[in-house]
Amino acid sequence: MSEPVMGVGFCRPLASRKVAVLATALSLLGVVALSTAAQAATEAAEPAVFAIESPRAEKGLMIDVVHAGKRLVAVGDRGHILYSDDQGATWVQAKVPTRQLLTAVFFIDEQHGWAVGHDAKILASTDAGATWTEQFKDLSREAPLLDVLFNDPNHGFAVGAYGALIETTDAGKTWTDVSDRLDNEDQYHLNAIAQVKDAGLFIVGEQGSMFRSSDEGQTWEKLEGPYEGSLFGVIGTAQPKTLLAYGLRGNLFRSTDFGDTWEPVALKADRGALEFGLSGATLLDDGTLVVVGNGGSVVVSHDDGLTFNVFNRPDRISLSAVTAAGNGDLILVGQGGVRVAEPTGAERKKQ
Amino acid sequence: MSSHHNDKATFLERLIFNNRPAVIVICLLVSIFLFWQATLIRPSTSFEKMIPLQHPFIEKMMEHRNDLANLGNTVRISVEAKDGDIFSKEYMETLRQINDEVFYISGVDRSGLKSLWSPSVRWTEVTEEGFAGGEVIPQSYNGSPESLDQLRNNVLKSGQVGRLVANDFKSSIVDIPLLESYPDPQDQGKLLALDYQKFSHELEDKIRTKFQEQNPNVQIHIVGFAKKVGDLIDGLIMVVLFFGIAFVITLVLLLWFTNCLRSTVAVLITTLVAVVWQLGLMHFFGFGLDPYSMLVPFLIFAIGISHGVQKINGIALQSSEADNALTAARRTFRQLFLPGMIAILADAVGFITLLIIDIGVIRELAIGASIGVAVIVFTNLILLPVAISYVGISKRAIAKSKKDANRDHPFWRLLSNFASPKVAPISIALALVAFGGGLWYSQNLKIGDLDQGAPELRPDSRYNKDNNFIINNYSTSSDVLVVMVKTKAEGCSRYEAMAPIDQLMWKMQNTEGVQSAISLVTVSKQMIKGMNEGNLKWETLSRNPDVLNNSIARADGLYNNNCSLAPVLVFLNDHKAETLDRAVHAVQEFAKENNKDGLEFILAAGNAGIEAATNEVIKEAELTILILVYLCVATMCMITFRSWAATLCIVLPLVLTSVLGNALMAFMGIGVKVATLPVVALGVGIGVDYGIYIYSRLESFLRAGLPLQEAYYQTLKSTGKAVLFTGLCLAIGVCTWIFSAIKFQADMGLMLTFMLLWNMFGALWLLPALARFLIKPEKLAGQKGNSLFAH
Q: Which 3-state string (H, E, C) describes chain A?
């Protein structure tokens, strides 16, 4: 369908970025000023509410999908968390103590996983995603957490809007805001965090911001990225120190030295360069990289990200994340929910 | 008691027949005046008359009408490219010309006109997907392959696929909001009301015909309330043709029945006078002709003819004994005025019960039909005998009726077996089986309209084909239920209101039969996502009041001026009663849980909301109407015959007809709706005539001491032919409707034809069988009796 990438925030020419930064800063002031009052009101009013079980949950907006062992776990709108034990053919809705949009999910092993989302919620599961408990929330931020990653079963990070970086060292029993470890004066949104093989952690965010850490997140180094537009995601490839960062308007960059230098990767669609924003990616067992995005974009690389085949699904519905189904197929999530696709991204015909 | 009535009749008779010229002159003058009135009557369809104004849904809709203005009245023209897709120079040129042409049609709200060519698309279109950020057709567009390529890209990015552009890129839409009234082009100070018929014709001439000729590769599809009403009015005009057909058939039948041209012409003319009076009076009292009241003249014509036939039958019989036409007419008048009045009263009672249905068109139908039958008293019960007293009846006809009176009738002899002790139990058993079967089958009967598309028109009408085209090729549905969300002033953009609206939308989307839901929340989420660079992770409501406020700035029409009312548009798969019930129930359930001070979820607007309300009214009225009409008819019979047995003999066959009628509706897939509900009342009201005519004769023969079967034979011999003929006349009057372009008229025609024929059959078949069990002839024999017909 349509491509929201042409939205207001995003068509601005490079020259006007400074204005945009100013605007962001101003809006931030507004947010901060208002947040204290709002917090008290909402927290008092809201008892623990669980997501409503809905027959159409798998057709609603879904944002992220990962594996908990063989099981697939997807998170999305209205606190919906779905899991599937049959390669995405059928989905079961988990019991989840929120009704807010969830933005990311991460499993460290077959049983233990975390999900983050709006209201700065962090939820945890110890039963492979069937039930969830709340570990953290902060309504006063009026801002979402956008990604989550664990180094080991105890140590993990969540990143989010306005430069939020939150850390746990006790499997999430307590979470601490460590945003000040980043040199992020403008409080750019941190959109994604990833582990890079034999190198460390990498964060990308708004306005092309990039941060890396070689000591499991204790100290962070700010990088001058190759791009001034926003980056929505980052993923380590199968090769050491190699990673892809991707974002607005089909911009995809590859680095083989943990972000010291970057090469733009051209994405050729049927009618010229791909202009859709890219939002999620996965590394398959055979080293294949799949990146998805708006406009039904599914781009696939079999050479560790040097070149990509571009496919736009005919429905043009925006995609947010992708993972392997476990049988060669792909699981795509985004607007319109979860769906099974062929390895190219084309619609899997139901048998 | 009876002598009193006789005196009265005699007085009336003297009054009329001693002043025959005066009667003729008065009728002539009245006819001239009412004919002039009748010529002024115009087809009119007012939206408000078709809906139950007292229903809480509709009351709320009317209350918030101004706040919902933007949702209302639009017409959509879909321009289809038969070969290839819309991205061709020729297609775009035709589309541009159509866009320009539409711009100048009166009644179009030019500021809201939307197509790929209008600049307004760029500024106002907010979609689920995001914002259209650039001009879809750029300034630099020149029809070259490059610019067409650019256009294609722009369309893809615009979010208009499924809205202005079909999912398969083979057609695009010109969206035309209408003004209910617009300034007169000649005199800007004056406001003209939108003439739907004229507007519809202009679309046909200036758009469909013109551009399909000009560019053979395009096909035009037009939908929208205004177009539908225009088509309806066109369909109405066809009904005049049906009237002509019914007239001719009736003429032939009358000639066959009377064997007399003079009396045939007399009956037809007096009946036409009745129709003219009825139409004239309707206009005189300020009513127009809507698709329902349009049918009243048919009924009046049929009822008038049937009474005329009774009169002619009587006069022919009397003429064989009387020396001149005047005496025959007077005697017939004396004999038939009272049963005629009773029958007409029964008709009127049937019609009047319809007044309890809270829908304007039905009430007007009831009033129109009641006026009509009242008029028949003057024209066919008074004017006709007077006219015949002048012209007389042909010798041949008198001779035939004299001969008929004396010869044996094998057919009637055969039918009289229905009263025999052997056949009657079988008849009753069969009737019981039919009754049980009918009851069982009519469980399948549904409330409401069952077909796709515009229920007023036939499924294969051009409008419904156009409608199907648009439903199939665009992400849209023509069945919309609107929930009004009321908050305090400036409250609609608060999180406390938006979050529950969001929940309601999701609940509705999880309700079977709901396709999608749209509200300011939809726009808000898209806007917030847009403000965050199109990132799906932000596609949700913000708790920040400023962000929310900004996010709905472009949600035109999805909240009112002071942000105290926000409609939620729920798109449904169809408008079947179960679908509507489920959706309405889901909303009511949600409202019960979530309504609080400053936040109310109110049903309902949108066409589906109106239909849901209508269905509820119909459902409630269905049983009431049935009980009321039977109560009235039974009371009439009791008053007339003073006998329970007689009442049962007359009413029970009607009950069987009603049950079988319901089963037929279930079988034909016709739902109980505004159009079919009156049929029950009309069918029973008119159907009771047969019973009254037959029973009154039967009773008088029984009193004369004849055994039941012989009495029934005599009854059939004297009145059977007239009853049979009456049934045929009525059926012919209404069965032409079956061919109407308007679906509900066709349904009404079918059901009424069935009810009237079957009522006649029931009276001839079941009435004597019931009489066999309920009536004791030996008790009646020789008795003076106390019924109104006893002489």
A: CCCHHHCHHHCCCHHHHHHHHHHHHHHHHHHHHHHHHHHHHHHHHCCCCCCCCCCCHHHCCEEEEEEECCEEEEEEHHHCEEEECCCCCCCEECECCCCCCEEEEEECCCCCEEEEEHHHEEEEECCCCCECEEEECCHHHCCCEEEEEECCCCCEEEEEHHHCEEEECCCCCCCEECHHHCCCCCCCCEEEEEEECCCEEEEEEHHHCEEEECCCCCCCEEECCCCCCCEEEEEECCCCCCEEEEEHHHCEEEECCCCCCCEECCCEECCEECCCCEEEEEECCCCCEEEEEHHHEEEEECCCCCCCEEEECCCCCCEEEEEECCCCCEEEEECCEEEEECCCCCECCCC
